[in-house]
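Box S1 | Example of a co-folding query
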Amino acid sequence: MSIFSHPDFDNHEGVYTFSEPESGLQCFIAVHNTNRGPASGGTRFWSYGSDSDALTDVLRLSRAMSYKNAMAEIPLGGGKGVILRPEGDFDREALFAAYGRAVEKVGGQYITAEDVGVSPDDMRIIKTQTDFVAGLDEGDAASGDPSPHTADGIFRGLEVAVKHKLGVEGVGGLIVAVQGLGHVGYDLARRLKKSGARLIVADINEAAVQRAAEELGAEIVSVDVIHAQEADIFAPCALGGAINAKTIDDIQAYIVGGAANNQLKTPDMGAELLKRDILYCPDYVLNAGGIINVAAEVSGTYDYAWVDAKIEGLRVTLKEIFTRSEDSARPTNEIADEMARERLGL
Ligand code: NAD
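Box S1 (continued) | Returned holo structure for nicotinamide-adenine-dinucleotide
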């Protein structure tokens, strides 16, 4: 497997491979860029089809973290860890302790946090082996669950989008289709409801949609059609790839913006949305509230006023992306990537 000629290799500063047969650990840690500070990004624990799939994931995700952190104007670079889930039975505690030792060996160039498949308990085990961990719920500067801050940033960003696209202040009276009611999606739905929006929701988890119907008066639709609702905003808050060749023609909303990472299945979907006159809020800009909160913990003294100001800064950045996109008739995702690379000095 070649790294330097890999299509997703982007002059990453470091790509580390660690294995520990006793615990079954096999992982990659990628440090994409540290121009703005130590590389930070979560650890993903996933059953990959092959180690080459895992390598592709770590290369892409670490670069995305550099872009996200640069756009959020926080003093962190971009990195990511992926652990290949062992087949069959394994000792979870031994595995995550081994991973903690791997993070420690990277020597502070990479600071890890939670991502898909990793729990707060796993984070506590990692922490027994290294101090290069953030997003914890215990300790001096612990910042806890980042999800409410992610939802807060998305909510504030959507206000900018509706002002830009629809010329209205706030989401009152608008219809929002929320795909996925997990940690972020539900919190976002709650904020939208509180501000007078009407909700249409879908989730594969029946209990989550029932709760949204009861608590938030949301209309429930099937997961197959949530993207196709006659709504003002479509908010993808489940997994990546919601905007793809199959779904794009069905999207009725004027604005697409939500929590999910990699909402565009392929980058050209950004141009396709622009062609259809749909305003796309670049995912890694809109959903940066959580990493901003994590950055406050990394600094050593958690200060919510700093977090609040940085989340507010996302509004300014989004407005600039929308304006540049309008002025140049280029897709917002391209503008965001361009701005991120400028900020990274690349
Ligand atoms: P989560 O696992 O708590 O929630 C995901 C929800 O999506 C679950 O309720 C799940 O049942 C639902 N879902 C899965 N497949 C679905 C489908 N096909 N249709 C509808 N619903 C479906 O995750 P989360 O922490 O809320 O994160 C949501 C997304 O936002 C993820 O893509 C994550 O990477 C991204 N994100 C999260 C944060 C954060 O702070 N948690 C920060 C940035 C980005």
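The longest strand covers residues 25-33. The mean pLDDT is 95.
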